[in-house]
Amino acid sequence: MAIIVISSVFLLPDYWYLWLIIIVGGVSLLVVWHTKNFAYLCPGCGEVFEVSTFEDFLSPNGGNKKYVKCPKCGKRAWADILKIKE
C-alpha cells in the first residue's frame, strides 16, 4: 500500500499536497487509535500506564515494545505494549 501511495505522489505532481494531507491525516488517525487502545508495562517496576498521543507519536517503536518513560519510577525503557480491554 505504501508503494502505491508513494508512486501516486510522483505520478500526480500537480496534486502532491493532497496526497501529503491524506498521508499525514492517516498517520494521525492511526496514532490516536493506538493511544486509545494500548497501554504499556514498565519492565523495571511493573507499572501499567498510558501515554499521551504526542508521546506515542514521537516514541520509537520496536514491534511489541515501545521506548517510553514510566510515570512511576521515572526511567526510560522498552515497555511491553498491552491491549486495553473495554
N-to-C CA distance: 30 Å
Give the biggest sheet: 4 strands, antiparallel
What Rg is obtained from the alpha carbons, in whole angstroms? 17 Å
Poorly predicted parts = none
Global shape: elongated
Approximate strand percentage: 15-25%
> What's the SSE pattern?
HHEEHEE
Mean pLDDT: 86
State the domain count: 1
- Count the strands? 4
Strand order, largest beta sheet:
2-1-4-3
Number of helices, counting only DSSP H or I runs of 4 residues or more: 3
What's the helical proportion of residues? 40-55%
Structural class: alpha+beta
Offer a quick outline of the entry:
The protein has 86 residues and is α+β, with helices and mostly antiparallel strands.
Overview of the molecule:
The structure is a single chain. This protein is of the alpha+beta class and 86 residues long. The chain has one domain. 44% of the residues lie in helices and 22% in strands. The chain has three helices and four strands. It has helices at 2-11, 16-37, 53-58, and strands at 38-41, 48-49, 65-69, 76-83. A four-stranded antiparallel beta sheet has the order 2-1-4-3. β1 (38-41) and β2 form a beta hairpin. α1 (2-11) runs antiparallel to α2 (16-37). The longest helix is centred in the N-terminal third of the chain and has 22 residues, at 16-37. The relative contact order is 0.16. The mean pLDDT is 86.
Task: Chart the SSEs and their pairings.
Elements: H1 2-11, H2 16-37, E1 38-41, E2 48-49, H3 53-58, E3 65-69, E4 76-83
Antiparallel strand pairs: 1-2, 1-4, 3-4
Features of this protein?
86 residues; alpha+beta; four-stranded antiparallel beta sheet; 3 helices
